[in-house]
Design a protein that fits this description.
It is a single chain. The strands form three sheets. A four-stranded antiparallel β-sheet has the order 1-2-4-3. A three-stranded antiparallel β-sheet has the order 5-9-8. Strands 6-7 form a two-stranded antiparallel ribbon. The chain is rod-shaped. The chain is an alpha+beta fold and 250 residues long. The protein contains nine helices and nine strands. α3 packs antiparallel against α4 and α6 crosses α7.
Length: 250
């Protein structure tokens, strides 16, 4: 009886570890010298053998070679001794078993099952992506609708109009923005705190009122621009306050 050798499969071909064969045959020459000598006989890397770098354990990395059964049989023939004959016969039996119809069918089924499993995994991933995209689109649809409403509105709007979008009265909405330290009142006009002033969120409009015959009364009115209206949307959303259109959409 001779020691069994490890068999690995690459490109549906059985491969033998050349170092294991070298040790089993009792070769005395240093492995690196021996394998170079064998390769120089005309064997081709990637066709007859496949080098494989081993992990370093502190010293230099060693290289193993995985060889085809044909190359292993050729090596055994070169020895012309009893071990060489035994291992050549071993490789002949291995080759015969490998090429039996049932073994070929078993490998084909295994390959098909592997490919099916990969396809199923890819389909599952694709399905998950589609679901996530659909959820994202559904989540963004109300936001897009409200932002479209903002962009289609006039260049500036009164706070009353914005308040209505959120289900507030103008008074309660102004108070909300005051409590959130967005605006405060000066001479009966709402103005923005320094953090938000000068960013194009609001503009002032002069209103002339004629309550009696003594003359007009001048009032400065704050109006929100489209940019300011969008700022309010983003700011309030962070606080969990959504416009009615989004609440209905959710």
């Amino acid at each position: 009886m001779i020691p069994m050798l490890r068999v690995e499969v690459k490109n549906d071909r059985p491969l033998i570890c050349a170092r294991e064969l070298y040790e089993a045959l009792g070769i005395k020459t240093q492995y690196s010298v021996w394998i170079d000598r064998i390769i120089s006989l005309g064997f081709v890397s990637g066709q007859d053998f496949y080098p494989k770098m081993n992990k370093s354990t502190g010293g230099r990395c060693s290289v193993d070679h995985y060889i085809t059964v044909d190359m292993a049989k050729h090596i055994c023939m070169l020895l012309r001794n009893e071990k060489g004959k035994l291992y050549r016969q071993y490789f002949l039996e291995l080759e015969k078993a490998w090429n039996q119809p049932e073994q070929v069918m078993a490998r084909a089924l295994q390959l098909a099952n592997t490919q099916i499993a990969k396809l199923q995994e890819q389909c599952t991933e694709l399905g998950d992506q589609l679901i996530k995209q659909q959820m994202l689109l559904e989540d963004m649809a109300p936001k897009a609708a409200y932002l479209d409403l903002i962009m289609n509105s006039p260049s500036s709007v009164l706070v009353t109009q914005i308040a209505k979008d959120y289900g507030y009265s103008a008074v309660s909405f102004n108070r909300l923005l005051h409590d959130m330290r967005i605006q405060y009142k000066v001479n009966d006009q709402w103005v923005l705190y320094a953090d938000y002033a000068g960013k194009g969120y609001v503009q002032s409009r002069t209103i002339y009122m004629y309550p009696n015959r003594t003359g007009p009364v001048v009032r400065i009115q704050t109006e929100w621009t489209q940019k300011g209206r969008r700022f309010l949307y983003e700011f309030l959303k962070e606080q969990g306050i959504l416009p009615l259109i989004e609440k209905e959409g959710g």
